[in-house]
Amino acid sequence: MNSTQTPHQRVAAHDTRLGKLAGWCYDHRWRVLILWILAVVVISGIGSSMGNNWNDKFDAGNSDSGKALHLLQDRFPSRAGDTADMVFHSKGDITSPANQAAVNGVVADVAALGLRDHVESVQSPFTKGGEGQVANVAPGKGHVVYARIQFDRETNDIPTAAIKKVLSTARHATPSDLQIEFGGGPVYKAEPPSMGSAELIGVVAAIFILLIAFGSLIAMGLPLLTAFFGIGIGSAIVTMLSHSLTVPSFALQMAMMIGIGVGIDYALFIVTRYRSELHDGSGPRDAVITALATAGHAVLFAGCTVVISLIGMLLLGQSFIYGLAFGCIGVVVMVMLSAMTLLPAILGFVGRTIDRLHVPGLLHKGEQATARRTFWYRWSRVVQRKPWVTGSVALVILIALALPLFGMRMGQSDAGSNPASSTTRKSYDLLAQGFGAGSNGPLFIAVDQPKTAAGSAAAGKLYDAFAALSEQPDSNVAYVAKPRLNPSGDAAQIIVVPLAAPQDKATDSLVHRLRDHVIPDALRGTGAKAYVGGVTAGGIDGTAGLTKKLPWVIGGVVLLSFLLLMAVFRSVAVPIKAAVMNLLSIGAAYGVIVAVFQWGWGASIIGVSRTGPIDSWIPLMLFTILFGLSMDYEVFLLSRIREEWLGHGDNGVAVADGLAGTARVITAAAAIMVFVFGSFVLGDMRQLKLFGLGLATAILVDATLVRMVLVPSTMELIGDANWWFPRWLDRLVPKLSVEVDADAHLPSGTTSPAPGQPGGDERDPALVP
Question: 411 and 540 in contact (C-beta within 8 Å)?
């Protein structure tokens, strides 16, 4: 085999850069701890004083809906802001004189707030121009009306306090016998769905799992402590980024979700190796150095793969994605730095006491000889004896889980997917009941008409065409409002209300029908142009744009990760296998979220009351995040397998020993991530539910079927070719890895202080702080 690797090209742990970093942090632990405490206090204080400036604006760009928005902003400045609906419901006749007076009173109070609270105007259903805001009198449809609030700017530019003042004013003015609910983007900003106590549930689950994994209270607390230091600084960074980038309101929760998972995992890997070295006879300082030079090396490159994957989100070209990506990157980098610097320092204080305060019967020693008597070692040998059978079974299960992804419909979920208790959902249901589901997503047609005889008639021709379309039984048009001209007469706005809900496929078809046929036919020869805009049309355009970028994102992330793994492991087969298996894990996660959120399988169990399309930006973001997180376990497992292989050159034994030595910690790490991510399913926000389920599914599948079955199966089938690396490629690819000899001892003269020193150090007494 023409491989550039031999089982002897290894360096003592204390001679590596990470080993030297570990020794310095260990020796200067007081300084490191104080610096981290100061960093948390100062950076968190700055972030808290600045406050947040979340922005959920999704840039429409140069799409048709974007052009409609820009035209309205330029020609209709008074109508370029966003709107909110006040929906009134009465058990009796909503059009009675008393109810009309009550509704008009609420409208007057809200309108009186004026521009100081960014209220441009309020259209009452009982005055001229509001005729279409009264539900048709029919059985079950005679008791709903709505008033439309026109704000003077877009949602993200309206202060939350001003929106809340509008809502409180309307609620206070509404008599008790009328129900009032609110809908629209500004309302969602002021009263977003509850995030629940997901973080707390995830942390409690992590404590329980770590206690079982280590059996020691001190060992259990170390990953949590170091992760929280990194998350504390990282969350402040996300908040500060919101003042310079477009950072969505859910970015902090998502960044914390990722930070808690990877932060605990990274520290868990290092602490596990540290305890293993102690149990094998090393002193605390040697154990810290070896742990960081081996497990820390895996953590470093695992973190780099996560960062590379998150950078792939930038290929989406959406401003809100940039803020989300950099926020998540900031948290990942900080928890990784905490594990690489703060943890070695804390281990200096802990020393040999790490196993004190242990739970009887749960204390795990972790020596290699013991590892070979574990279930995992025996399991790896079972898999290796019949690799074709075990590998095929795992592959069939993964493919079965992934099959629903081929039925995925990407789109934009509407307010009908909000929690049933929220005012936006109640408003949605009332409007759907009284006016049809499409009233929750009207289409705004912006007409740019030249001041010519033919051009001036353009808006009228469009209205006639839309009205004629509404008469057709399959048109999906419920209502067409008469054109509104701007003062100069060179632009008009027409509102078209679909029959179907904003997220329905029929509404997508209507938008394309208007753009491709109805509008061009009606405006032919007029010289005018018209664009279909509004939130619904913007969502359709966003879906089309993001779908086109999906292959580029996947290709870019996979290529960069492949190159990094090839440089780290000096192998061609290993990174190819890692990329394919990670894609299988992600495919399984896609299949599960489609089955639950789109098809409704088991949706009620996690509080999903209404199915709908998968929000178009979520699959792309799930891919980038999952690819990085899945690579964590790949890097950690393969690092240990490679370490074993470099020691004796036997691929089969290396795989078995590597799996036996890491299976316990990978299982614990995966369980923590599954519970942390799964806890977000308990919140009210649909996007976080979807993310939580997708992430938890992928990690569960990855740590079981992939790492424990497919990896040993394929590595057994490939054999020594796992480590094949042509010499010409070895010269081209930079060397990012250092092969560590974990059995090498520190030079004499650098160890052996008095046994009574704190932590049982093996350092020069002069270095003790």
Answer: yes
Instruction: Write out the two tokens for 602.
Output: 């088991």
Q: Copy the structure tokens of residue 618.
A: 């979520």
> Environment class of residue 360 by beta-carbon count within 10 Å: exposed (0-12), middle (13-18) or buried (19+)?
exposed
Q: Which residues contact 605 (CB under 8 A, 6 or more apart)?
A: none
Categorize the per-residue pLDDT at 84 as very low, low, confident or very high, splitting at 50, 70 and 90: very high
Helix H segments across 191-282? 198-214, 217-241, 251-279
- Cα-based distances in Å from 13 to 269, 602, 632, 660, 741: 17, 50, 22, 22, 6
Cβ atoms of 633 and 708 closer than 8 Å? no
Distance between CA 99 and CA 565 in Å, rounded? Answer: 69
For residue 31 the two structure tokens come to 């300084």
CA pair distance 223, 273, nearest whole angstrom: 13
Nearest CA to 643 out of 5, 2, 1 is that of: 5
Closest residue by Cα to residue 149 from 180, 181, 119: 119
DSSP-assigned letters across all residues of 546-613: HHHHHHHHHHHHHHHHHHHHHHHHT-SHHHHHHHHHHHHHHHHHHHHHIIIIIT-TTGGGGT--S--P
Q: In this structure, how many other beta carbons lie within 10 angstroms of the beta carbon of residue 357?
A: 13
Q: End-to-end CA distance of the chain: give it in Å, rounded.
A: 52
Confidence of residue 137 (pLDDT cuts 50, 70, 90): low
Kind plus residue range of the DSSP H or E element containing 126: none
Residue 436 contacts residue 499 (beta carbons within 8 Å): yes
What residues have CB less than 8 Å from 662, skipping those under 6 apart? 636, 637, 640
Task: Write the pLDDT tens digit of every residue in 674-686.
Answer: 888 888 888 778 8
Residue 462 in contact with residue 481, Cβ under 8 Å?
no
DSSP codes of every residue in 659-680: HHHHHHHHHHHHHHHHHHHHHG
Whole-angstrom CA distances from 92 to 44, 95, 425 are 54, 9, 22
| CA–CA gap between residue 365 and residue 285 (Å, rounded) | 18
- Asked if residue 652 lies in contact with residue 717, where contact means CB atoms within 8 angstroms, the answer is no
Residue 151 φ/ψ region, left for φ over 0, alpha for ψ in the -120 to 50 degree band, beta for the rest: beta
Of 352, 360, 356, 359, give the one whose Cα is nearest residue 274: 352
Residue/partner pairs of 133-136 with CB below 8 Å, 24 or more apart: 134/94, 134/95, 135/94, 135/434, 135/435
d(CA 121, CA 148): 8
Residues contacting 39, CB < 8 A, separation 6+:
233
pTM of the entire predicted model: 0.80
**φ and ψ of 448, to 5 deg:** -105, 105
Pairing mode, strands 740-741 and 11-12: parallel
Phi-psi region of 759 (alpha: psi -120 to 50; beta: other; left: phi over 0): left
Torsion angle, CA of 403/409/413/419, rounded to 10 degrees? -20
Give me 554's structure tokens.
């996947």
Confidence of residue 645 (pLDDT cuts 50, 70, 90): confident
Rounded distance, CA 280 to CA 74, Å?
73
- Under a CB-based contact definition with an 8 Å cutoff, are residues 46 and 240 in contact? yes
Spatial CB neighbours of 101, under 8 Å, sequence gap ≥ 6: none
Distance CA(205)–CA(213), nearest Å, equals 12
- Which percentage of the chain shows pLDDT scores above 90? 40
Report the 10 Å Cβ neighbour count for 363.
14
Q: What is the pLDDT of residue 757?
A: 40
Find tokens 């065409």 and name the residue.
465
DSSP 440: G
Q: Is residue 123 predicted with pLDDT exceeding 60?
A: yes
Question: Token digits for 707?
Answer: 């790492």
Amino acid sitting at position 600: G
Q: How confident is the model at residue 383 (pLDDT cuts 50, 70, 90)?
A: confident
